[in-house]
Amino acid sequence: MSNNLGNKEIMAKNIQYYMDRYEKSRNDMCEALGVKYTTFTDWVKGNTYPRIDKIELMANYFGISKADLVEERIIRTVDTGQRIKSRRLQLGYSVEELAKKLGKNRATIYRYENNEIENLPTTVLEPLAQALETTPAHLMGWDDSPDSTLPEITNIHPVRLKKFPLLGSIACGEATYSPEPWETYIEASEDIKADFCLTAKGDSMINARIHDGDIVFIREQPLVDNGEIAAVVINSDSEATLKRVYYYQDKNLLILKAENSKYGDMIYQDDELEMVRILGKAVSFQSLVK
């Protein structure tokens, strides 16, 4: 008697699991199996046990074996949010980039990664898996191997992240500056010792491997050593540029040099230095693989 009750409970849990997984309602199941709503409800509640022919119909409907319905399913603790985040980082996508691919906002991606949305429906899971170049089974932990769709990778290690405020864009060409409110953040390694970041615009620093669209991380400081790359504000904060800085105190002379021969030096001397201010030193940058 108790064994029969246990079997009914196992069957009920398994039916509900596959209904949730494939987003099927009780009405959907009744129509597919040709049974009354009350009959199916008794199965899902564990009150009665379906006949073998109905079990086979359900298995075929879900694309599983009869054993998947009859036997107790081993439940593994799976952090779906962590899998989503790990796969995003593995591909080098920012939260903003993944959100754009899915037509979502950043807050929604953060909710996915923090497991704030339970039981992701297939309408969300499938495009998410496609954007992350994996399978729904991998993200949800349904496959036998945690990374069955991915090659074994031994030369990369987990990166601890922190958020850096993205203040705007800075010219890598003619001096311009587009400040933005501190509403946007970039996630990057906490090993980067920076206070904020800027988006590079233009091609004047390409020989330093800084290209248009790259994220440049800046450590705020008023002075830099000669030859270091800095974010420099000109004309009372209305313009800014990213250049190598050379200051000659004996001549009261400042030269800002590009890393592209098609751009000339920007030279400031004597009273002109009053209109120049160093925002900080460029300590790192982040590029997309192109």
Question: Topology of this structure?
Answer:
Layout: H1 2-21, H2 26-33, H3 37-45, H4 52-62, H5 66-70, H6 80-91, H7 95-102, H8 106-113, H9 122-131, H10 136-140, E1 161-171, E2 177-179, E3 185-189, E4 196-201, E5 215-220, E6 229-234, E7 239-248, E8 253-257, E9 266-269, E10 276-286
Parallel strand pairs: 1-4
Antiparallel strand pairs: 1-2, 1-3, 4-5, 5-10, 6-7, 6-10, 7-8, 8-9
Question: What are the defining features of this structure?
Answer:
disordered N terminus, 290 residues, rod-shaped, 33% helix, alpha+beta, 434 Repressor (Amino-terminal Domain), 10-stranded mixed β-sheet, Umud Fragment, subunit A, 10 helices, 3 domains
Overall description:
With 290 residues, the chain is α+β, with helices and mostly antiparallel strands. The protein has 3 domains: 2-70, 434 Repressor (Amino-terminal Domain); 80-140, lambda repressor-like DNA-binding domains (434 Repressor (Amino-terminal Domain)); 163-286, Umud Fragment, subunit A. It has 10 helices and 10 strands. Strands 1, 2, 3, 4, 5, 6, 7, 8, 9 and 10 form a 10-stranded mixed sheet that branches. Helix 7 packs across helix 8 (106-113). It starts with a helix and ends with a strand. The model is unreliable at 1-6 and 144-150 (pLDDT under 50).
